[in-house]
Amino acid sequence: MPALYIVGTPIGNLEDMSLRAIRTLKEVSLIASEDTRTTRRLLAHFDIHTPLTSYFEHSKSGKLGYLLEKLQNGDVALVSEAGMPGISDPGYELVVAAQEKGFKVIPIPGPSAAVTALAVSGLPTDSFRYIGFLPRKGSERRKLLAAVRQEETTLIAYEAPHRIGEALRDIINFLGNRKIAVCRELTKLHEEIFRGTAEEALGHFTEPRGEFTLVIAGYEPGESTLSTKEIADRIKALKSSGKTAREAIPGLMNETGRSKKELYNIWVEPEK
User: Fold this and answer.
1) Whole-angstrom Cα distance, residue 64 to residue 54?
2) Which phi-psi region, left, alpha or beta, contains residue 40 (left: φ > 0; alpha: ψ -120 to 50)?
3) How far apart are CA 173 and CA 229, in angstroms?
4) Which residues contact 197 (CB under 8 A, 6 or more apart)?
5) What is the distance between the alpha carbons of residues 35 and 59, in angstroms, rounded to a whole number?
6) What is the pTM of this model?
7) Could you say which of 94, 111, 128 is where a domain stops?
8) Distance of CA 5 to CAs 32, 53, 82, Å?
9) Given 111, 143, 177, which residue is the final one in a domain?
10) Please, which residues bridge with residue 159 across strands?
């Protein structure tokens, strides 16, 4: 019986394409691609002439039946714009539908930005949680970050360059000034791996470009569960009661586990 091949492709550097992936894409009867323009360049580079069809987020429901029909007559390969298909990309529904119809689903492993970033982050790798692309809407992004605040595992997320500043501010406000690795343009010509705190990262990426993968340190037991925003609200209340920074900050240090300098910076920050 024909099979559906889930084929990993390079996240940047074309030399990361595996020999097995090249052979598979040459041998299948059809390639379903999230971005046909990107895939055409990949196929041309490796002299692959297999027929190509689109399969992206807004076409997947209409294409599902078509691809299952094609599987009746020959092998089909699924590729995403970059990396492993089905990981924050279209593919899940096709995999499930193919399995339900009795077709084999065969993985051809390849690069993954999330795992690549984790491996070089300098943060714990024994346990991690991938939370995908951070939501575009600020309210939804903050809700997600609040929900994972006490996760002790390393967190991995994707973000677009035009939202990286807002994302880092929300990370600081809802997770605290944690250690973070910000990986930009992995495996590409302008690859950059920044390691430091979230505040340092915010100061570093003033003109962000490219694709970003964030690797964030997990919650440490004993660490305050209060976010920076909640601490700022507490400070506002203390100010209203007439407390001075000298009087209030020692107690806040015990309550939150934050440093004197960090709390003082929050204290003197203008109210918004």
Assistant:
1) 11
2) alpha
3) 5
4) 177, 178, 179, 180
5) 11
6) 0.82
7) 111
8) 10, 15, 15
9) 111
10) 212
pLDDT for position 262: 79
The per-residue pLDDT for range 101-116, each reduced to its tens digit, is 999 999 999 999 999 9
169 occurs within a structural domain: yes
Q: SS3 of 128, please?
A: strand
Domain that holds residue 168: 114-216
17 & 107 share domain: yes
Contact 43, 115 (CB under 8 A): no
Q: Side chain identity at 249, as an amino acid letter?
A: I
Q: Of 14, 18, 17, 52, which Cα lies nearest the Cα of 36?
A: 52
Number of separate domains in the chain: 3
Comparing 242 with 113, the larger pLDDT belongs to 113
Pairing of strands 128-133, 104-108: unpaired
Question: Both 59 and 130 in a single domain?
Answer: no
Cα–Cα distance between 209 and 202 in angstroms, integer?
Answer: 14
One domain, residues 84 and 183:
no
d(CA 117, CA 187): 10
The CATH number covering residue 170 comes to 3.30.950.10
